[in-house]
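Recall the central idea of this unit: under ordinary conditions, the amino acid sequence of a chain determines the structure it adopts. In this exercise we apply that idea directly, starting from the sequence alone.
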Amino acid sequence: MNATIDNRSNLPHAVVSRIVHRVLDELEVNLSWVRVRVFETDHWHHHGHIYIRPGRSNCLIIARVPSVVSDHPHDRKMRGGPPPIVVKTWQEALVCILAHEGTHLRQFLHRPKRGGHTRFVRGKPVKVGPKIFSEVEAEWAEYRFLKSYRERRNR
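Accordingly, the structure predicted from this sequence is:
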């Protein structure tokens, strides 16, 4: 099945569709209940959000893609995160957004149903709920998918 794509930008629908399906396919996400809404933004940077409705069979990924991309590095300051990247085109920005938000969707779908993990607070173990989302994992996905996209494009 295909994801539903609501392209509200002036970006070519065929290219947007190809990128959406390639990234989400590689993440092994069930595309039949994913909607992707793409907007153009006047900002120089890209950003996205994901809305998941637990118990329902749908999810919405919002992708805001800059119409003009500057060579500003996307530097993350998270410990254990990937090196800074420079997004050069709107296509690369869309790849990054979909890889990041799609990783959060995969994390949600494969989260532990019960249990949790133990954190240490002031040297004492404290049981906390299951850790669902990892920003570091999502940022590494952005980095890997962008690198892969560039390699495929340059062949």
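Strands lie at 4-7, 34-41, 47-52, 59-66, 73-74, 85-86, 117-121, 124-128.
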